[in-house]
Automatic annotation (TrEMBL):
HAMAP family registered for this protein in UniProt: Trp_synth_beta
Enzyme kind, highest EC tier: lyase
SUPFAM superfamilies: Tryptophan synthase beta subunit-like PLP-dependent enzymes (SSF53686)
Alphabetized GO MF terms: tryptophan synthase activity
Record protein name field: Tryptophan synthase
Co-factor requirement: pyridoxal 5'-phosphate
Organism this protein belongs to: Corchorus capsularis
Pfam families linked to this entry: PALP
Recorded GO CC terms: cytoplasm
Catalyzed reaction equations: (1S,2R)-1-C-(indol-3-yl)glycerol 3-phosphate + L-serine = D-glyceraldehyde 3-phosphate + L-tryptophan + H2O
Keywords: Amino-acid biosynthesis, Aromatic amino acid biosynthesis, Lyase, Pyridoxal phosphate, Tryptophan biosynthesis
Highest taxon listed in the record's lineage: Eukaryota
Length: 477
């Protein structure tokens, strides 16, 4: 994101730069939205026309409730950035202009032959695309029944991309847009570090300044990626908390210099056009998969499986096949210590609809509308929400969603190492883990594609020392 001629910004997310006022619990489809001092005037600008405002006269918390009345879906389907009732731009008016400029630039590059050719060249010569669609023969044999029958399992090897994950597909494209818009400084947030490394690499290539925000605990768990970011020339800033907190701090850092900086998001969340941009630049995964499947067996995959954090790698694989109703789309969330443990990141399974970081989607939140801290051994899955398009796929039933625990993900990581000699990221291991339940239900010869969204070198030490017989408070990584 980038914008010029904006001098002040009074609110972001659900905290305020110049005031202690906050918005309280949503009612119905109401949402957690930050508010500045001039509450009525500002809310009338940042809320949709369907919203009404109810003030709660609580001098201790100084809180407000924002209540949205229902909106007919037919009114929203044709609106850019809306997926049914999900998505939108829940931001202050000052950012509307900024996001509008970004959207206009995004629409231009989609049809700019020179930009597209430069991007294709970068993806081929720098990123290393296309990535293989690999037949996992031993993993396939592992899931055959006593009659020697079972599905055929293929792995989309995004782990073989430059810097080891799918994140570089989007990072290089958005960095090119930032430079095209005249921005000199890139701001980003990262959890597992894969987006941070990808952004730092893209900035090094394009001669852009780079600042990465990362949670303190995540930095400790992913120390190798922190080192890589620094070697690539990025400034890495520590944030108390996790990825959601790093994201909030990155946005604050960005709004401090809107004229020169660009917020490079790696997830399919946030206000429009951010989710659509990330999905568009990741859709190369699914486009390649379709072409490769046709070359290998002369048809489409029957089942696509991907892990779900916020949804970037899943939508990257799924989007090409959304209209192919005969292709099953399966997203696998992080169940952590179990869906009933309170220590998970399963937003689809346990979340409710609300607004966070500028868009409406499913979120992990308590009865008062406060965001809950997610947990997963796969740090990249520790986000308390999913993207608006993922939310729409859930609500319409086009995709199905399941979950895998920490233990199941660790087991899947080890299984792929021993059977195929491949180190999958712990995030992708959640998708692999679901094969244990999925494969026995599939007909012989069913073509299954699992997105290996990242490389697992970063997780090897945590997997090696993982102790499954400890309680959640005693787990040592």
């Amino acid at each position: 994101m980038a914008c010029s001629n904006i001098k002040t910004l009074s609110l972001i997310n659900h905290k305020i730069l110049s005031s202690h006022l906050t918005v309280d619990r949503k009612i119905g489809t109401a949402s957690v939205v930050p508010v500045p001092v001039n509450i009525p005037q500002t809310l009338s600008k940042i809320l949709p026309d369907s919203a009404t405002l109810t003030l709660k006269n609580n001098p201790q918390t100084q809180s407000f409730s924002v209540i949205n009345k229902p909106v007919e879906r037919k009114e929203m389907d044709s609106v850019p950035g809306k997926f049914g009732r999900f998505g939108g731009k829940y931001v202050p008016e000052t950012l509307i202009t900024c996001l509008g400029k970004l959207e206009a630039e995004f629409n231009l590059v989609l049809h700019d032959s020179q930009f597209q050719e430069e991007l294709r060249t970068a993806l081929r010569d720098y990123v290393g695309r296309e990535t293989p669609l690999y037949f996992a023969e031993r993993l396939t044999n592992h899931y055959k029944n006593n009659n020697g029958e079972g599905p055929e399992i293929y792995l989309k090897r995004e782990d073989l991309n430059h810097v080891g994950a799918h994140k570089i597909n989007n990072a290089i494209a958005q960095a090119m847009i930032a430079k095209r818009m005249g921005r000199t400084s890139i701001v980003a947030a990262t959890g597992a570090g894969q987006h941070g490394v990808a952004t730092a690499a893209a900035c090094a290539k394009l001669d852009l300044e780079c600042t990465i925000y990362m949670g303190a605990a995540d930095m400790e768990k992913q120390s190798s990626n922190v080192l890589l970011m620094k070697l690539l020339g990025a400034q890495v800033k520590t944030v108390e908390g996790s990825f959601k907190d790093a994201s909030s701090e990155a946005i604050r850092g960005w709004v401090g210099d809107l004229e020169n900086s660009y917020y490079l998001t790696g997830t399919v969340v946030g206000p429009h056009p951010c989710p659509s941009m990330v999905r568009e630049f990741q859709s190369v995964i699914g486009k390649e998969t379709r072409r490769q499947a046709m070359d290998k067996w002369g048809g489409k995959p029957d089942v696509l499986v991907a892990c779900i954090g916020s949804g970037s790698n899943a939508l990257g694989l799924f989007h090409e096949f959304i209209n192919d109703q005969d292709v099953r789309l399966i997203g696998v969330e992080a169940a952590g210590f179990g869906l009933d443990s309170g220590k998970h990141a399963a937003t689809i399974a346990r979340g409710e609809v609300g607004v966070y970081h500028g868009a409406m989607s499913y979120l992990l939140q308590d009865e008062e509308g406060q965001i809950l801290g997610p947990h997963s051994i796969g740090v990249g899955l520790e986000y308390p929400g999913v993207g608006p398009e993922v939310s729409y796929l859930k609500e319409t039933g086009r995709a199905e969603f399941h979950s895998a625990t920490d233990q199941e993900a660790v087991d899947a990581y080890r299984r792929l190492c021993k059977l195929e000699g491949i180190f999958p990221a712990l995030e992708a291991s959640h998708a692999l883990a679901f094969l244990e339940k999925l494969c026995p239900t599939l007909a012989n010869g069913t073509k299954v594609v699992v997105n290996i969204s990242g490389r697992g070198d970063k997780d090897a030490d945590r997997v090696f020392h993982y102790k499954h017989d400890l309680t959640p408070c005693e787990i040592v990584y």
